[in-house]
Design goal:
F5/8 type C domain-containing protein, about 50% strand, signal, 54 strands, 2 helices, Pectin_lyase_fold/virulence, FA58C, Galactose-bd-like_sf, mainly beta, about 725 residues
Length: about 725
């Protein structure tokens, strides 16, 4: 019995040991924490293991010699500082188990301040899988350099809660060389030059990827020649030698004192930059021209919110000094909700670097103030050097008698922009965020087809509207798991391919509806005429986000699908006829209130108290004291709307006044020779808002014929009359 008990005990122990092993995730067993502390009394020893706070490493010599593994941590003592050294990190983690470089204990952030010419505070050369947080970097050529020299497809760098100071020409042997700019955070890439060079420089379909998933959050930069410098070359500058950086997120970053630029981003494919603030930019000589934000050779990027203020140009340069610089060679780049003010040159600069201005640009809901205070080559609210896109909902506050727009902008569409004349002391309020669009989705059902991402250009479908006018409020694109880029959605009239409406949707931030569509709001509602054909498309990117091919079938809530269509740069082509679509894409619409375009008249009006017949179709659907009231309590009284031509409709929304409800009335239609009732008369009404649906009728006028006024005063009151096709 004793030996059996021993055997059972051994088996139980073995099973328990195996169970513990199964609970350990790959890589966790080797994860370790290393400490660095050079403060007096720390007991530091570079020859030791460095794995306890009682015996930490002293400086970066053992750190640089160590190859770290996924899940490891390298922690610097809060309050400590290191000079004369670069932290050259080795090893790679993963997105789920990054290697962490951060701080430990309480106190000020640990400081890395190399303090020598061409020094770098932290270098990650060809690495992915790192998280860097809670440090202060100062006095160097570059604060953090991410370098990918013939290194490809690395994943995950996260940088958060840093302070970066004094990355300037004082620590730079060649500050005017383009590839040698002093920067808080730089991303430098290099590949073998493509031969021949890319013929499609914007899409660059052969360009490889250096890094995917770069996140930078909550970083404050002070006195740096630029906060960020993405796409800086390792040597020289040849666009065919560069690599993409994909899925870039920058959030809550501030630079105060950007000598050359505030932020600079090149060769980014897919990014969302939120709440970036650039202040006091352009104080040093810059042969490339100063700007609060420069973006070039990039695509599918959204810049949302934030502020650019006080951008000057150095006396050595008679150009630029602009707020936001779309430098060129890009597409699908959006600038939204930005407050730009006090710029030497243009508030927004849409340039044509390499002769290629950006296409499908979105400039929406920005406030641009005090532009052109020391102009060189630009002074406008927006200066254009070609390109295409939409400019909507922007406010331009002009205090130096400058033009709102300048240059060449023939392929841009403008809507709901406002220009004001203000004093130089005027302080603009940041723009409010535009709300989401409302309405009913045009596509009511779909069977998605094959996923693909092998085309540059526009894909979608052609449709013909039904017998009734509809009002367009927004456009939508079907969400696909893993998508992260921005897409410009467009609606064109088929007959002449003219642009009816456009907006840009972010697949990484927009919330899908119940059918999986992500929407963007148009600057202004657009009416789509009955029995008219339109093209509805999304711009797509070769090798980018996935979309569904035209083996997709769709059904519409109104109108008819005519088939899939596409344009990959060679003109418009039809795909499969019938209920087929690429994407799929959709739109949000409401039925047009026919009454809004009509002319109102009445039997008599109480004008002394502010009532007017014209108020019954002014779009204010209120049940307060508003609208029309009869001049007399004697019945009958009437209020009519003349459409100007025959309209077919089957629903009315009648608003009267709360407490003064219209008790008895008829809804009547003018059939060309007489008034006829649309439905039986209403008696004993006590509701301030009534919806009436009925068999469709056709007429050129509609009227409310009152037979019994309100209970309080006996007057007839109608606040608003809305008329819909159904």
């Amino acid at each position: 019995m004793s030996s059996k008990r021993q055997m059972l005990g051994m088996l139980f122990f073995a099973a328990a040991f195996v169970a513990v092993l199964l609970l350990v995730k790959p890589g966790e067993a080797s994860a370790a924490v290393y400490y660095v502390n050079n403060q007096s009394g720390s007991g530091c020893n570079n020859a030791g293991a460095g794995t306890s706070t009682a015996a930490p490493w002293c400086d970066f010599t053992p750190v640089n010699a160590k190859t770290f593994s996924a899940g490891d941590q390298v922690l610097l003592k809060s309050g400590a500082a290191w000079t004369g050294q670069t932290l050259n990190l080795q090893g790679e983690g993963t997105a789920s188990q990054p290697i962490l470089l951060s701080s430990y204990s309480t106190g000020n952030k640990p400081i890395i301040a190399p303090g020598t010419i061409d020094s770098i505070a932290i270098l990650l050369n060809g690495k992915g899988g790192w998280k860097i947080a809670n440090l202060e970097l100062s006095n160097a050529w570059e604060g953090i350099r991410l370098q990918y020299d013939h290194v490809y497809n690395k994943d995950y760098i996260w940088i958060e809660n840093l302070t970066i100071r004094n990355m300037t020409s004082a620590y730079n042997s060649a500050p005017t060389s383009y590839n040698h700019t002093s920067a808080g955070i730089s991303v430098k890439t290099m590949a073998d030059a493509v031969s021949p060079p890319y013929s499609d420089k914007v899409n660059a379909p052969g360009r490889l990827t250096a890094l995917t998933n770069l996140t930078i959050k909550n970083v404050n930069f002070y006195n740096c020649d630029t906060a960020t410098w993405f796409g800086a070359p390792v040597t020289g500058f040849n666009p065919s030698e560069h690599l993409w950086v994909k899925k870039v997120i920058m959030q809550d970053l501030t630079i105060d004192g950007g000598g050359m630029w505030g932020f600079n981003a090149l060769f980014v494919d897919g990014g969302v930059f939120t709440n970036l603030v650039a202040k006091n930019i352009g104080g040093v000589s810059n042969p490339f021209g100063s700007a609060g934000f420069v973006i070039a050779y990039s695509k599918n990027v959204e810049v949302i919110g934030g502020e650019i203020v006080n951008v000057s140009r150095h006396p050595d340069q008679n150009y630029d000094g602009v707020g936001f610089d779309f430098e060129g060679v890009g597409k699908n780049i959006s600038l939204r909700n930005m407050n730009i003010r006090n710029t030497a040159g243009a508030g927004i600069f849409h340039y044509n670097n390499s002769g290629l201005p950006d296409i499908d640009t979105v400039i929406d809901n920005n406030i641009v103030s005090h532009y052109g205070n020391n102009p060189g080559n630009s002074s406008e609210g927006i200066y254009f050097a070609g390109g295409s896109g939409i400019v909507t909902n922007n406010v331009f506050n002009n205090s130096f008698a400058r033009s709102t727009y300048g240059g060449s902008y023939g392929e841009f569409v403008f809507a709901k922009n406002t220009a004001n004349t203000v004093s130089p002391s005027f302080v603009p309020v940041p723009p409010s965020v535009i709300g989401a669009p409302a309405g009913t989705g045009l596509v009511t059902s779909q069977v998605p087809g094959t996923l693909r991402n092998d085309s540059n250009g526009e894909v979608g479908f052609k449709f013909t509207t039904g017998a009734t006018e509809i009002t367009l409020q927004g456009l939508g694109r079907k969400a696909v798991a893993g998508n992260y880029k921005t897409h410009t959605l467009k609606l064109r009239k088929d007959s002449d391919k003219s642009l009816v409406g456009a907006c840009s949707v972010s697949t990484s931030t927009a919330v899908p509806d119940s059918q999986g569509y992500q929407y963007c709001k148009l600057a202004a509602n657009v009416s789509l005429q009955p029995a008219t054909s339109y093209l509805l498309t999304s711009t797509e990117d070769y090798g980018g986000d996935y979309w569904h091919s035209d083996d997709t079938t769709i059904a519409l809530g109104t109108g008819t699908v005519n088939g899939s269509i596409y344009n990959n740069g060679g003109g418009w082509s039809s795909g499969i006829a019938g209920n087929r679509a690429y994407g799929p894409v959709t739109l949000l619409y409401t039925l047009t209130n026919i009454a809004r375009s009509g002319t109102a008249a009445a039997s008599g009006t109480d004008t002394a108290n502010g009532y007017a017949a014209s108020k019954v179709n002014d779009g204010i659907a209120s049940t307060d004291f508003n609208g029309w009231a009869s001049a007399s309590p004697a019945m009958p009284q009437w209020i009519e709307i003349d459409f100007g031509s025959n309209k077919t409709f089957g629903r009315v929304e009648l608003y009267t006044t709360s407490g003064y409800e219209l008790r008895g009335y008829q809804i009547q239609v003018w059939n060309g020779s007489s008034w006829v009732n649309a439905f039986p008369a209403v008696t004993g009404n006590s509701s301030a808002h009534r919806t009436h649906t009925f068999a469709a009728v056709t007429g050129s006028k509609i009227r409310v014929y009152s037979t019994q006024g309100d209970a309080a005063s006996s007057y007839a009151r109608v606040n608003e009359l809305e008329v819909y096709s159904y």
